[in-house]
Amino acid sequence: MRVLGLDVGTKKIGVAMSDSTQSIAQGLKVYRRTCLKDDLEEVKRLAEEHTITEIVIGLPKDLSGTVGKKAQEVMAFAEQVERYTQIPIVLWDERFSTNEANRVFELAQVNHKKRKPFIDMIASQIILQGYLDARQTK
């Protein structure tokens, strides 16, 4: 029983997954979006393949903490995912997750060109790990 983490963008979705103890997040893939139907089908396929019991989706709030246009789009997508997969969705504040992903690559001295294909996956991993850590401290 695992948790799936998604960093939803307009062109790509970064995907991460927890281990079976739901304590460690690991990057899984970057999915290139095509259309809503295919996007939902891919999430459902991953959920079934990996025995997913919960899906965490990064919510891109504005720096002030308010819900802007992008966050509303992600919330609408999350609603569609929950309806299509019948798996509970958790929206998790993702402010700074991409910045954190870039910092990870900078520490590893990976140049911008080489990190670009993986940024969304690492961001989804950071989002999911934040959620898993917060849940364990409760």
Structure characterization notes:
- By secondary structure, the chain is of the alpha/beta class.
- It has a single domain (2-136), classed as 2-Layer Sandwich (Nucleotidyltransferase, domain 5), CATH 3.30.420.
- Helix content is 46%, strand content 25%.
- Strands 3-2-1-4-5 form a five-stranded mixed sheet, sandwiched between helices.
- Helix 1 crosses helix 2.
- The longest helix is centred in the last third of the chain and has 18 residues, at 119-136.
- It is globular and about 40 Å long.
Summarize the structure.
The protein is an alpha/beta fold and 138 residues long. Helix content is 46%, strand content 25%.
Keywords, separated by commas or semicolons:
single chain, globular, 138 residues, Nucleotidyltransferase, domain 5, five-stranded mixed beta sheet, alpha/beta, 5 strands
Helix content: 40-55%
Rounded average pLDDT: 91
Question: What would CATH call the class?
Answer: Alpha Beta
- Which value, in Å, is the CA radius of gyration? 14 Å
Describe the strand arrangement of the main beta sheet, using strand numbers.
Answer: 3-2-1-4-5
Major sheet: size, sense and barrel closure? 5 strands, mixed
The DSSP helix count reads 5
Distance between the termini: 20 Å
Overall structural class, as computed from helix and strand content, comes to: alpha/beta
Which architecture per CATH? Answer: 2-Layer Sandwich
Number of domains: 1
Report strand %. Answer: 25-35%
User: Quick one: CATH superfamily?
Assistant: YqgF/RNase H-like domain
CATH overall fold name: Nucleotidyltransferase, domain 5
Output the helix-strand order. Answer: EEEHEHEHHH
Given as residue ranges, the uncertain stretches (5+ residues, pLDDT < 50) are: none
Q: What is the 3D form?
A: globular
User: What assembly state would you assign to the polypeptide chains in this entry?
Assistant: single chain
Give the strand tally.
Answer: 5
